[in-house]
């Protein structure tokens, strides 16, 4: 079973509605609640997968997902400022304004990564 968890801080200088809009731009099916300055909840990866194809960042996404594997989960930090315009940019550790933290958990994580961010050759998806 696949579980996608979303966590995103809302800083005092930020409008919670705009942070939620950034989350929804990447994860339109996200079900999140705001508590103590933090959005937490779950989402699907369908729109995320579409966006990384549109932006042609499959290799970068795959590398981030594989690099952060710990057991049966992986983690990505998505820049929330870039997300406001419906684009994906991966953030480094501890970005100044925080990031949308996405944790993906699956019993067969590599198969999930292969579906979401498949291997490419010369920029084209390789169908296995």
Largest sheet: 5 strands, antiparallel
Q: In CATH, what is the class? A: Alpha Beta
Helical percentage: 25-40%
- Which structural category fits the helices and strands? alpha+beta
List unreliable stretches of 5+ residues.
none
Instruction: Report Rg.
Output: 14 Å
| Strand-residue proportion | 25-35%
What is the averaged pLDDT score?
Answer: 92
CATH topology: 50s Ribosomal Protein L5, Chain: A
Give the CATH superfamily. Ribosomal protein L5
Please, how many helices?
Answer: 5
Spatial ordering of strands, largest sheet: 2-3-1-5-4
Task: Please give a structural write-up.
The structure is a single chain. By secondary structure, the chain is of the alpha+beta class. The protein has a single domain, classed as Ribosomal protein L5 (50s Ribosomal Protein L5, Chain: A, 2-Layer Sandwich). It is built from 5 helices and 7 strands. It has helices at 16-26, 46-54, 58-67, 80-83, 109-116, and strands spanning 3-9, 31-35, 38-42, 73-79, 99-105, 120-121, 124-125. The strands form 2 sheets. Strands 2-3-1-5-4 form a 5-stranded antiparallel sheet. A two-stranded antiparallel ribbon has the order 6-7. Helix 3 (58-67) runs antiparallel to helix 5 (109-116). It starts with a strand and ends with a strand.
């Amino acid at each position: 079973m696949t579980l996608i968890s979303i966590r995103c801080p809302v800083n005092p200088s930020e409008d919670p509605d705009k942070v939620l809009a950034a989350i929804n731009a990447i994860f339109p099916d996200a079900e999140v609640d705001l508590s103590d300055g933090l959005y937490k909840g779950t989402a699907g990866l369908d729109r995320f997968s579409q966006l990384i194809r549109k932006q042609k960042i499959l290799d970068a996404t795959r590398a981030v997902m594989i690099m952060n594997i710990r057991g049966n989960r992986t983690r990505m930090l998505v820049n929330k400022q870039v997300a406001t315009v419906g684009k994906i940019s991966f953030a480094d550790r501890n970005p100044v304004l925080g990031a949308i933290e996405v944790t993906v958990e699956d019993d067969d994580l590599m198969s999930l990564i292969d579906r979401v961010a498949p291997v490419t050759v010369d920029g084209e998806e390789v169908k296995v």
